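sanity check both lines:
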Amino acid sequence: MDTTSTHLQQGILGNNSLSFHLDRPGFHSDITKHVGVQAALITAYSLIILLGLVGNALVIYMIIHFRNMRTVTNFFIANLALADLLVDTLCLPFTLVYTLLDEWKFGAVLCHMVPFAQALSVHVSILMLAVIALERYRCIVFHLGQRLTWRSSLLIMAFTWTLSAVLAGPLAIFREYRQEEIPSINLRISVCYEKWPYGSSRDGVIYSLSMLLLQYVLPLSIISYAYICIWVKLKNHVSPASRID
């Protein structure tokens, strides 16, 4: 298999759909090339982006603007909303354009930055959900009236963003942007794809499995455990009125 075919199979932003369509003689029959489908995709993505921007921006505004809303838990929620804003601005628009064009149109710098920002926003969202679950678990299960201090909460948020940036870092480092020629159909396209050291896909597989463990299995286990404990605690709670009866 030649170099061009290999790169295209790796795909733009790690997606191999481009190679699939270009290798077929009738790739222009791809359903995403139909005007009606493109109009539906643009409409759906636009609505999702608009609602996400308005909703998450409103959450952040309410927490910052109203003093009684400035609690530690609400600031964790504001961080979650901020991460969702990154999804609305850095994930969905680029995904839409890629889906419609099957080509990377945003240059070399964004080739490295967009995947990093996308992964960063996802990591922050997942970690903040775990942090919120643990904070509720701490307060409800252990009856701790004293909430986290502002200093502690700021350190937690800073650690969350830093850890997320470290986890997303490889997606910014191990990438390559280049022009590819497709002689069979007389086409020249720009591609942005993962390029791991020594040209091996093994490192990419290891990274993907590590992210599956650290960003799905582990957080889901923590969140599930925390809320199950909260549910059991509330279920077994006996109110003063019940004791009198």
